[in-house]
Amino acid sequence: MSSPDDAQRALAPYGWDDDWAAAFAPYAQQGLVPGRVVRVDRGLCDVVTPFGTVRADTEFVVPRDPLKVICTGDWAAVDPDGADPRYVRAYLPRRRSFVRSTSSKRSEGQILAANVDLVIIAVSLAVELDLGRVERFLALAWESGAQPVVVLTKADLVPDAVTLSHLVRDVETSAPGVPVLPASATTGEGLDVLAAVVAGGTSVLLGQSGAGKSTLANELLGTDAQVVQAARDVDGKGRHTTTTRNLLLLPGGGALIDTPGLRGVGLWDAGSGVERVFSEIEELARGCQFHDCAHEAEPSCAVLAAVADGVLPERRLDSFRKLLRENRYIVAKTDARTRADLRREWKQKGAVGRAAHRAKRTGRI
Fold first, then answer.
1. DSSP state of 43
2. How far is CA 137 from CA 40, 71, 91, 109, in A?
3. Confidence band of 232 (pLDDT split at 50, 70, 90)
4. If you write DSSP's letter for every residue of 60-125 in order, what string do you get?
5. How far apart (Å, rounded) are the C-alpha atoms in residues 251 and 260?
6. What is the model's pLDDT at position 63?
7. How far is it, in rounded angstroms, from Cα 150 to Cα 206?
Protein backbone atom coordinates (compact mmCIF):
# COMPACT_ATOMS: atom_id res chain seq x y z
CA MET A 1 0.00 0.00 0.00
CA SER A 2 1.29 3.46 -0.90
CA SER A 3 1.62 6.24 1.63
CA PRO A 4 0.24 9.74 0.95
CA ASP A 5 3.81 10.94 0.40
CA ASP A 6 4.42 8.19 -2.18
CA ALA A 7 1.29 9.18 -4.05
CA GLN A 8 2.24 12.86 -3.93
CA ARG A 9 5.70 12.27 -5.37
CA ALA A 10 4.59 9.84 -8.08
CA LEU A 11 1.41 11.58 -9.16
CA ALA A 12 2.34 15.26 -8.73
CA PRO A 13 3.49 15.57 -12.38
CA TYR A 14 -0.04 14.49 -13.37
CA GLY A 15 -1.70 17.14 -11.22
CA TRP A 16 -2.16 15.38 -7.87
CA ASP A 17 -2.43 17.87 -5.00
CA ASP A 18 -3.59 18.12 -1.38
CA ASP A 19 -7.23 18.61 -2.37
CA TRP A 20 -7.23 15.44 -4.48
CA ALA A 21 -5.55 13.61 -1.61
CA ALA A 22 -8.24 14.78 0.81
CA ALA A 23 -10.98 13.66 -1.59
CA PHE A 24 -9.31 10.27 -1.94
CA ALA A 25 -8.91 9.67 1.82
CA PRO A 26 -12.08 7.52 2.21
CA TYR A 27 -10.88 5.21 -0.57
CA ALA A 28 -7.39 5.00 0.96
CA GLN A 29 -9.04 3.66 4.11
CA GLN A 30 -10.51 0.87 1.96
CA GLY A 31 -7.04 -0.07 0.75
CA LEU A 32 -7.58 1.28 -2.77
CA VAL A 33 -4.84 2.95 -4.82
CA PRO A 34 -5.07 6.45 -6.38
CA GLY A 35 -4.26 7.07 -10.02
CA ARG A 36 -5.08 9.19 -13.04
CA VAL A 37 -6.80 7.69 -16.07
CA VAL A 38 -4.62 8.23 -19.14
CA ARG A 39 -6.59 6.14 -21.65
CA VAL A 40 -9.97 4.40 -21.89
CA ASP A 41 -10.94 1.82 -24.49
CA ARG A 42 -13.07 -1.33 -24.81
CA GLY A 43 -14.14 -1.58 -21.21
CA LEU A 44 -10.61 -1.19 -19.86
CA CYS A 45 -8.45 1.78 -18.95
CA ASP A 46 -4.82 2.62 -18.28
CA VAL A 47 -4.28 4.29 -14.91
CA VAL A 48 -1.04 5.89 -13.70
CA THR A 49 -0.57 4.97 -10.03
CA PRO A 50 2.32 5.37 -7.55
CA PHE A 51 3.40 1.87 -8.66
CA GLY A 52 3.34 2.61 -12.39
CA THR A 53 0.69 2.30 -15.08
CA VAL A 54 -1.86 -0.46 -14.56
CA ARG A 55 -4.61 -1.88 -16.75
CA ALA A 56 -7.98 -1.99 -14.98
CA ASP A 57 -11.54 -3.01 -15.78
CA THR A 58 -14.13 -0.20 -15.89
CA GLU A 59 -17.23 -2.30 -15.13
CA PHE A 60 -18.08 -0.36 -11.96
CA VAL A 61 -17.64 3.12 -13.50
CA VAL A 62 -19.69 2.80 -16.70
CA PRO A 63 -23.27 3.70 -15.68
CA ARG A 64 -26.09 4.26 -18.16
CA ASP A 65 -25.60 8.03 -18.05
CA PRO A 66 -22.82 8.76 -20.60
CA LEU A 67 -21.82 11.84 -18.62
CA LYS A 68 -20.92 9.69 -15.64
CA VAL A 69 -18.71 7.10 -17.34
CA ILE A 70 -15.01 7.00 -16.52
CA CYS A 71 -13.03 9.32 -18.80
CA THR A 72 -9.47 10.26 -19.65
CA GLY A 73 -8.32 12.76 -17.03
CA ASP A 74 -10.36 11.31 -14.17
CA TRP A 75 -8.73 10.55 -10.81
CA ALA A 76 -9.58 6.97 -9.93
CA ALA A 77 -9.65 4.57 -7.00
CA VAL A 78 -8.13 1.28 -8.19
CA ASP A 79 -7.79 -2.18 -6.66
CA PRO A 80 -4.35 -2.74 -5.06
CA ASP A 81 -1.65 -5.06 -6.40
CA GLY A 82 -2.64 -8.72 -6.37
CA ALA A 83 -6.26 -8.18 -7.33
CA ASP A 84 -7.25 -10.31 -10.33
CA PRO A 85 -9.07 -8.98 -12.19
CA ARG A 86 -8.24 -5.43 -11.22
CA TYR A 87 -11.07 -2.89 -11.21
CA VAL A 88 -11.53 0.86 -11.06
CA ARG A 89 -13.94 1.04 -8.12
CA ALA A 90 -14.79 4.75 -8.33
CA TYR A 91 -13.50 8.11 -9.49
CA LEU A 92 -13.25 11.40 -7.64
CA PRO A 93 -15.72 14.25 -8.28
CA ARG A 94 -14.57 16.21 -11.32
CA ARG A 95 -13.44 19.79 -11.04
CA ARG A 96 -14.11 20.50 -14.71
CA SER A 97 -15.12 18.54 -17.78
CA PHE A 98 -15.45 19.21 -21.50
CA VAL A 99 -18.83 17.94 -22.73
CA ARG A 100 -20.49 18.00 -26.12
CA SER A 101 -23.81 16.73 -27.44
CA THR A 102 -23.66 13.36 -29.19
CA SER A 103 -24.97 12.82 -32.69
CA SER A 104 -27.50 10.27 -31.41
CA LYS A 105 -31.22 10.99 -31.44
CA ARG A 106 -31.37 10.57 -27.65
CA SER A 107 -29.86 14.00 -26.99
CA GLU A 108 -27.13 12.70 -24.75
CA GLY A 109 -24.03 14.49 -23.59
CA GLN A 110 -20.60 13.00 -24.18
CA ILE A 111 -17.69 13.82 -21.90
CA LEU A 112 -14.44 14.18 -23.84
CA ALA A 113 -11.97 15.07 -21.08
CA ALA A 114 -12.05 15.47 -17.30
CA ASN A 115 -10.25 17.82 -14.92
CA VAL A 116 -8.73 20.09 -17.56
CA ASP A 117 -7.35 23.58 -16.98
CA LEU A 118 -6.91 24.64 -20.62
CA VAL A 119 -8.87 23.88 -23.78
CA ILE A 120 -6.62 24.26 -26.83
CA ILE A 121 -8.68 24.69 -29.99
CA ALA A 122 -6.62 23.91 -33.09
CA VAL A 123 -7.78 25.75 -36.23
CA SER A 124 -6.01 25.16 -39.55
CA LEU A 125 -5.00 28.09 -41.72
CA ALA A 126 -4.70 25.70 -44.68
CA VAL A 127 -8.43 26.22 -45.32
CA GLU A 128 -10.83 29.15 -45.06
CA LEU A 129 -11.57 30.15 -41.48
CA ASP A 130 -14.92 28.97 -40.14
CA LEU A 131 -15.50 31.50 -37.38
CA GLY A 132 -18.85 29.98 -36.50
CA ARG A 133 -17.18 26.67 -35.68
CA VAL A 134 -14.56 28.48 -33.59
CA GLU A 135 -17.35 30.18 -31.61
CA ARG A 136 -19.04 26.80 -31.11
CA PHE A 137 -15.85 25.27 -29.66
CA LEU A 138 -15.37 28.33 -27.47
CA ALA A 139 -18.88 28.12 -26.02
CA LEU A 140 -18.24 24.55 -24.88
CA ALA A 141 -14.77 25.45 -23.61
CA TRP A 142 -16.05 28.32 -21.45
CA GLU A 143 -18.89 26.12 -20.19
CA SER A 144 -16.36 23.53 -19.03
CA GLY A 145 -14.84 26.04 -16.63
CA ALA A 146 -11.43 25.83 -18.30
CA GLN A 147 -9.54 28.63 -20.07
CA PRO A 148 -9.73 28.33 -23.88
CA VAL A 149 -6.80 29.08 -26.19
CA VAL A 150 -7.10 29.20 -29.98
CA VAL A 151 -4.06 28.00 -31.92
CA LEU A 152 -3.99 28.84 -35.63
CA THR A 153 -1.96 25.95 -37.01
CA LYS A 154 -0.03 25.79 -40.29
CA ALA A 155 0.70 29.51 -40.11
CA ASP A 156 3.61 29.00 -42.52
CA LEU A 157 1.00 28.57 -45.29
CA VAL A 158 0.17 32.27 -44.87
CA PRO A 159 3.55 33.86 -45.65
CA ASP A 160 2.21 37.41 -45.92
CA ALA A 161 2.46 38.99 -42.47
CA VAL A 162 -0.35 41.46 -43.11
CA THR A 163 -2.76 38.71 -44.19
CA LEU A 164 -1.81 36.63 -41.15
CA SER A 165 -2.42 39.57 -38.81
CA HIS A 166 -5.88 40.08 -40.36
CA LEU A 167 -6.73 36.40 -39.79
CA VAL A 168 -5.58 36.60 -36.19
CA ARG A 169 -7.65 39.74 -35.67
CA ASP A 170 -10.75 38.07 -37.19
CA VAL A 171 -10.45 35.22 -34.70
CA GLU A 172 -9.76 37.57 -31.80
CA THR A 173 -12.99 39.41 -32.65
CA SER A 174 -14.83 36.10 -32.43
CA ALA A 175 -13.01 35.08 -29.24
CA PRO A 176 -13.13 37.91 -26.68
CA GLY A 177 -10.90 37.23 -23.72
CA VAL A 178 -9.16 34.30 -25.43
CA PRO A 179 -5.47 34.16 -26.46
CA VAL A 180 -5.08 33.54 -30.21
CA LEU A 181 -1.69 32.12 -31.19
CA PRO A 182 -0.51 31.52 -34.77
CA ALA A 183 1.78 28.49 -34.85
CA SER A 184 3.73 26.41 -37.32
CA ALA A 185 5.37 23.04 -36.80
CA THR A 186 7.40 23.72 -39.95
CA THR A 187 9.00 26.98 -38.83
CA GLY A 188 8.54 26.61 -35.07
CA GLU A 189 6.58 29.86 -34.88
CA GLY A 190 4.54 30.20 -31.71
CA LEU A 191 5.50 26.81 -30.25
CA ASP A 192 7.63 28.22 -27.43
CA VAL A 193 4.79 30.53 -26.40
CA LEU A 194 2.29 27.67 -26.45
CA ALA A 195 4.63 25.39 -24.47
CA ALA A 196 4.84 28.07 -21.77
CA VAL A 197 1.04 28.44 -21.74
CA VAL A 198 0.36 24.72 -21.23
CA ALA A 199 3.08 24.11 -18.63
CA GLY A 200 1.90 23.31 -15.14
CA GLY A 201 -1.70 22.24 -15.83
CA THR A 202 -3.77 19.77 -17.82
CA SER A 203 -4.71 20.78 -21.36
CA VAL A 204 -7.06 19.10 -23.82
CA LEU A 205 -6.34 19.50 -27.54
CA LEU A 206 -9.43 19.72 -29.74
CA GLY A 207 -10.22 20.41 -33.37
CA GLN A 208 -11.35 18.94 -36.65
CA SER A 209 -9.48 16.18 -38.43
CA GLY A 210 -6.72 17.75 -40.49
CA ALA A 211 -6.31 20.71 -38.15
CA GLY A 212 -2.80 19.58 -37.26
CA LYS A 213 -3.55 18.42 -33.72
CA SER A 214 -1.26 15.36 -33.81
CA THR A 215 1.60 17.39 -35.27
CA LEU A 216 1.08 20.06 -32.63
CA ALA A 217 0.98 17.41 -29.90
CA ASN A 218 4.25 15.91 -31.15
CA GLU A 219 5.93 19.31 -31.09
CA LEU A 220 4.78 19.97 -27.52
CA LEU A 221 5.80 16.46 -26.43
CA GLY A 222 9.16 16.63 -28.19
CA THR A 223 8.60 13.18 -29.68
CA ASP A 224 6.57 11.45 -32.36
CA ALA A 225 4.05 10.10 -29.87
CA GLN A 226 1.14 10.58 -32.25
CA VAL A 227 0.89 9.27 -35.81
CA VAL A 228 0.54 12.04 -38.40
CA GLN A 229 -1.25 11.74 -41.74
CA ALA A 230 -1.47 14.28 -44.54
CA ALA A 231 -4.68 16.24 -44.94
CA ARG A 232 -6.55 16.23 -48.26
CA ASP A 233 -5.58 19.17 -50.44
CA VAL A 234 -9.18 19.76 -51.54
CA ASP A 235 -10.64 20.62 -48.15
CA GLY A 236 -7.83 20.35 -45.61
CA LYS A 237 -9.52 17.45 -43.84
CA GLY A 238 -7.63 14.41 -42.64
CA ARG A 239 -8.38 10.97 -41.34
CA HIS A 240 -8.60 10.34 -37.61
CA THR A 241 -4.93 9.83 -36.78
CA THR A 242 -5.77 9.83 -33.06
CA THR A 243 -8.40 7.20 -32.29
CA THR A 244 -8.54 7.42 -28.49
CA ARG A 245 -8.13 10.18 -25.92
CA ASN A 246 -4.67 9.91 -24.39
CA LEU A 247 -3.17 11.86 -21.48
CA LEU A 248 0.56 12.43 -21.92
CA LEU A 249 3.11 14.28 -19.78
CA LEU A 250 4.77 17.34 -21.31
CA PRO A 251 8.56 17.76 -20.93
CA GLY A 252 8.15 21.36 -19.77
CA GLY A 253 5.58 20.44 -17.14
CA GLY A 254 1.87 19.78 -17.31
CA ALA A 255 -0.11 17.14 -19.16
CA LEU A 256 -1.82 17.04 -22.55
CA ILE A 257 -4.96 15.12 -23.54
CA ASP A 258 -4.99 14.57 -27.28
CA THR A 259 -8.34 13.70 -28.86
CA PRO A 260 -9.62 12.33 -32.17
CA GLY A 261 -10.76 14.88 -34.72
CA LEU A 262 -14.32 16.04 -34.13
CA ARG A 263 -16.67 16.06 -37.10
CA GLY A 264 -19.53 17.50 -35.08
CA VAL A 265 -19.47 19.83 -32.10
CA GLY A 266 -22.97 19.92 -30.68
CA LEU A 267 -23.70 22.24 -27.77
CA TRP A 268 -24.63 20.69 -24.44
CA ASP A 269 -26.29 22.98 -21.90
CA ALA A 270 -23.80 25.71 -22.73
CA GLY A 271 -25.90 28.81 -22.12
CA SER A 272 -23.32 30.62 -20.00
CA GLY A 273 -20.60 29.59 -22.47
CA VAL A 274 -22.53 31.16 -25.36
CA GLU A 275 -22.97 34.34 -23.37
CA ARG A 276 -19.23 34.42 -22.65
CA VAL A 277 -18.32 34.01 -26.33
CA PHE A 278 -20.66 36.82 -27.32
CA SER A 279 -19.94 39.04 -24.34
CA GLU A 280 -20.12 42.22 -26.43
CA ILE A 281 -23.71 41.37 -27.43
CA GLU A 282 -24.61 40.73 -23.81
CA GLU A 283 -23.11 44.13 -22.95
CA LEU A 284 -25.01 45.88 -25.75
CA ALA A 285 -28.26 44.15 -24.74
CA ARG A 286 -28.24 46.08 -21.47
CA GLY A 287 -29.18 49.13 -23.52
CA CYS A 288 -32.23 47.50 -25.11
CA GLN A 289 -35.66 48.89 -24.20
CA PHE A 290 -36.99 45.45 -23.26
CA HIS A 291 -35.08 43.20 -20.84
CA ASP A 292 -36.19 40.10 -22.81
CA CYS A 293 -35.34 41.59 -26.20
CA ALA A 294 -34.69 38.90 -28.82
CA HIS A 295 -32.77 41.35 -31.04
CA GLU A 296 -35.01 40.51 -34.00
CA ALA A 297 -37.28 43.49 -34.73
CA GLU A 298 -38.01 45.03 -31.36
CA PRO A 299 -38.06 48.83 -31.07
CA SER A 300 -35.10 50.55 -29.41
CA CYS A 301 -32.91 47.44 -29.66
CA ALA A 302 -29.33 48.46 -28.87
CA VAL A 303 -27.95 45.31 -30.51
CA LEU A 304 -29.67 45.94 -33.86
CA ALA A 305 -28.58 49.57 -33.66
CA ALA A 306 -24.97 48.43 -33.23
CA VAL A 307 -25.29 46.25 -36.33
CA ALA A 308 -26.77 49.14 -38.31
CA ASP A 309 -23.93 51.42 -37.19
CA GLY A 310 -21.29 48.86 -38.16
CA VAL A 311 -20.13 48.46 -34.55
CA LEU A 312 -21.28 44.82 -34.36
CA PRO A 313 -20.72 42.52 -37.37
CA GLU A 314 -24.01 41.03 -38.54
CA ARG A 315 -22.31 37.64 -38.78
CA ARG A 316 -21.68 37.72 -35.02
CA LEU A 317 -25.35 38.37 -34.28
CA ASP A 318 -26.44 35.59 -36.66
CA SER A 319 -24.03 33.17 -35.02
CA PHE A 320 -25.22 34.21 -31.55
CA ARG A 321 -28.85 33.57 -32.50
CA LYS A 322 -28.01 30.20 -34.03
CA LEU A 323 -26.08 28.92 -31.02
CA LEU A 324 -28.65 30.28 -28.58
CA ARG A 325 -31.50 28.52 -30.44
CA GLU A 326 -29.54 25.27 -30.60
CA ASN A 327 -28.70 25.38 -26.92
CA ARG A 328 -32.30 26.08 -25.91
CA TYR A 329 -33.46 23.20 -28.09
CA ILE A 330 -31.01 20.70 -26.63
CA VAL A 331 -31.82 21.79 -23.06
CA ALA A 332 -35.57 21.46 -23.68
CA LYS A 333 -35.11 18.08 -25.35
CA THR A 334 -32.91 16.85 -22.51
CA ASP A 335 -35.43 18.03 -19.89
CA ALA A 336 -38.21 16.20 -21.73
CA ARG A 337 -36.12 13.03 -21.87
CA THR A 338 -35.33 13.31 -18.15
CA ARG A 339 -39.03 13.64 -17.34
CA ALA A 340 -39.84 10.61 -19.50
CA ASP A 341 -37.11 8.58 -17.76
CA LEU A 342 -38.47 9.58 -14.35
CA ARG A 343 -42.00 8.60 -15.37
CA ARG A 344 -40.76 5.18 -16.46
CA GLU A 345 -38.86 4.80 -13.20
CA TRP A 346 -41.93 5.74 -11.16
CA LYS A 347 -44.07 3.28 -13.12
CA GLN A 348 -41.54 0.50 -12.58
CA LYS A 349 -41.36 1.24 -8.86
CA GLY A 350 -45.13 1.37 -8.70
CA ALA A 351 -45.43 -1.98 -10.45
CA VAL A 352 -42.91 -3.54 -8.07
CA GLY A 353 -44.75 -2.07 -5.07
CA ARG A 354 -48.12 -3.32 -6.29
CA ALA A 355 -46.71 -6.79 -6.91
CA ALA A 356 -45.22 -6.88 -3.40
CA HIS A 357 -48.53 -5.73 -1.92
CA ARG A 358 -50.46 -8.45 -3.77
CA ALA A 359 -47.94 -11.07 -2.68
CA LYS A 360 -48.27 -9.96 0.92
CA ARG A 361 -52.08 -10.08 0.80
CA THR A 362 -52.07 -13.58 -0.67
CA GLY A 363 -49.57 -14.81 1.91
CA ARG A 364 -46.77 -15.42 -0.55
CA ILE A 365 -44.37 -13.32 1.49
1. T
2. 23, 20, 27, 15
3. very low
4. GG--SSGGGS--TT-EEEEPPTT-SS-BEEEEPPPS-EEEEE-SSTT--EEEEEES-SEEEEEEES
5. 22
6. 87
7. 10
